[in-house]
Amino acid sequence: MWVVPEKDIAGLMTPEAAFDAVEAVFAAMARGDARNFPVVREAIGHEDALYGFKGGFDGAGLTLGLKAGGYWPNNQKRGLINHQSTVFLFDPDTGRVSAAVGGNLLTALRTAAASAVSSKYLAPQGAKVLGMIGAGHQSAFQMRAAVRFGNFERVIGWNPHPEMLTRLADTAAELGLPFKAVDLPRLGAEADVIVSITSAFSPLLMDAHVQGPTHIAAMGTDTKGKQELDPALVARARLFTDEVAQSLSIGEFQHASAQKLISDSDVTAIGQVIIGNHPGRGDAEVTIFDGTGVGLQDLAVAGAVVELAKQQGKAVEVEI
Ligand code: NAD
Known about the structure:
Helix content: 25-40%
Distance between the termini: 7 Å
Radius of gyration: 19 Å
Bound molecules: nicotinamide-adenine-dinucleotide
Largest sheet: 8 strands, mixed
Order of helices and strands: EHHEEEEEEHEHEHEHEEEEHEHHEHEHE
Number of strands: 18
Oligomer: single chain
């Protein structure tokens, strides 16, 4: 099997490779060639850790495997990041393990790639202003991908903890774009594309905040109970997601669905737009992509990085 250590991922994986891998796997899901398996997520009763795995099989890309890991809240004291994960790939012809790949940076890259893919298909024409809600670890990756694959002229941002906004200012500076911290009404009025990536458990962006043609990539809600958007905003928007069942159960749309403001058929998998089965934005003023994070995204970027590592002589071969 091949091992690609976490420390080598940054030098191997490109945003373009992540974008292409995620776009391709969303398309494979829409064609019925790829499916995610049920997610396992358990509190293990040790170190307050949440551990789980997300797996799947892409029969078009022939990628089989799982990402195992979770959240260890006490890791920071040990000088480690709290989210820890590893991707394992298996040969779909024989079941033999074929690769173990560090999954921490890949998770940030695949999550950022998903929102960038959604903007490619759903952003209003001529989008120039990027609005960022959230200033944690993921936010910098989100901004980098949005700017790389969009055509933004400036970035505005808001975060529930204002002291963290320096991350957004620094990232915008790195990308050569002006940045301004604003309040949510201004963010909703001025931004053409909004990326939200927080750990909120109650709505931050309200229906009244969002004005004019806008695309929102809601990326923070990946668990029951989390919430970033006003259900009334969800109810008036055209809705897209990575996987419909996951969006309605643990994603942002769980709330509007529970309140019967939307029905299951109101939510379209982004893959349907990618393969040309759905027109996407059409005449909608507001579109929302609910990025819940699926195992197939992890397998897609891990498969891509194994190929890059092999080409560049950086994959370590071990006997198991
Ligand atoms: P982080 O801990 O580095 O930052 C947390 C962010 O959420 C900050 O902006 C912080 O101000 C805000 N926040 C924290 N507690 C809050 C609260 N109670 N109410 C409102 N806001 C709060 O986290 P991160 O690594 O940047 O991840 C952000 C979110 O994205 C998390 O919820 C994480 O689970 C989620 N995530 C989603 C995916 C996906 O595929 N959809 C992938 C990775 C992470």
